[in-house]
Design goal:
The protein is α/β, with parallel strands linked by helices. The chain is globular, with a radius of gyration of 19 Å. 44% of the residues are buried.
Length: 346
């Protein structure tokens, strides 16, 4: 893999950018009964997520240091749940730090398990972090090369960073303020973010993969409108959006309606983390409470959202995420739901 020198880390933000007011309109997502579909439902790439996979073995050994046979055993539950696609997470296995022989061994393990890797998630490695930004940028470059070596189509990136100790102790981390550096009102900081993602987009194009930027609260990708403006400023045809609606809908404050989020982001979507939340709002007190739930039971109507996105050109991978409980099993339930509601060619 080519070694790419790190760019300088972002300067520490001075004044946080003002929060964009939540959009309350609910545009119609109705589409024609017949729409072009790129895949039959049974063939659509639906990938397991790795949110519940710890980065170390029972004895504390980091996953990156385990023998390939142990990687294979750790991945067997994914196979047992019926998945044939897997999003590899750098939180589980930092692909950008593996040498070529270890990457080859990993590819052999995945082939033996019958698991394709349509995407790689670079998890909580913000290129704008004031101290670790340069290292995170270099790691992202190395991960692009690693993803290409594994045959992945997409590398998913974001601007959110590591959870704070308080978030790690909380039942639901999004209910506690985190340590993320907020988006800065300083135009130089935002311009740096645009330049760095354009740089990563150029590398991705050379490597034969695409980038997808994940919506996440408290970043330049923290609302539908902000995300599209940010993507427009990057202006790279190999950089699209991952409209992780759940990341925004779980916030316990006013947020964009899910219909507005879908209507704005669907035409720019090239990869999609799907998860859902129950959301209780009390207008009298302003209280908002959220809780993870399955795709079919939450506030987001994924039957409508998926049809709308496909009608606007989406044909990429769906990654089924879920926090709490047996998230892998819930993901399998969600994958079965998606195959029931994905449109069919008529």
């Amino acid at each position: 893999m080519a070694e790419t020198p790190a760019s300088p880390a972002a300067p520490a933000p001075r004044t946080p950018a003002p929060r964009t007011p939540a959009r309350t309109e609910r545009p119609s997502l109705t589409v024609p009964s017949r729409i072009p579909v790129p895949h039959a439902p049974r063939d659509w790439p639906i990938a397991a997520a790795m949110l519940q996979f710890p980065p170390h073995a029972a004895d504390g050994t980091p996953v990156a240091e385990l023998e390939p046979g142990e990687w294979r055993r750790l991945l067997q539950p994914v196979v047992d749940e019926g998945f044939t696609h897997l999003e590899l997470s750098t939180a589980w296995l930092p692909l950008g730090d593996l040498d070529r022989s270890r990457l080859t061994a990993l590819r052999d393990v995945l082939d033996d398990a019958g698991l394709a890797v349509p995407g790689v998630g670079v998890v909580r490695r913000s290129v704008l972090h004031p101290e670790r930004g340069g290292d995170n940028l270099a790691f992202s470059h190395r991960t692009i090369d690693a993803a290409a070596a594994l045959g992945a189509d997409v590398v998913c990136l974001g601007l959110h960073d590591t959870l704070s100790p308080e978030q790690r102790r909380a039942l639901w981390f999004w209910t506690v303020p985190g340590g993320d550096v907020p988006p800065s009102a300083d135009p130089e900081v935002r311009a740096l973010a645009v330049r760095l993602f354009r740089e990563l987009g150029d590398h991705a194009a050379d490597a034969g993969v695409e980038l997808s930027l994940e919506l996440y609260e408290g970043t330049y990708l923290g609302s539908a409108d902000e995300a599209v403006r940010f993507l427009d400023d990057i202006g790279h045809d190999k950089v699209g959006l991952n409209p992780d609606l759940g990341n925004l809908l779980r916030a316990q404050r006013p947020v964009d309606t899910w219909e507005y989020l879908v209507s704005v982001t669907a035409p720019r979507t090239n990869y999609w983390h799907v998860k859902n939340y129950a959301r209780l709002e009390d207008p009298a007190t302003g209280t908002v409470l959220t809780h993870p739930t399955s795709l079919e039971l939450g506030v987001i109507d994924y039957r409508a959202a998926v049809r709308y996105a496909i009608s606007h050109g989406f044909g990429g991978t769906l990654v089924v995420e879920h926090y709490g409980g047996d998230g892998l099993s819930v993901g399998a339930t969600n994958a079965a739901y998606l195959r029931r509601v994905l449109p069919r060619a008529r």
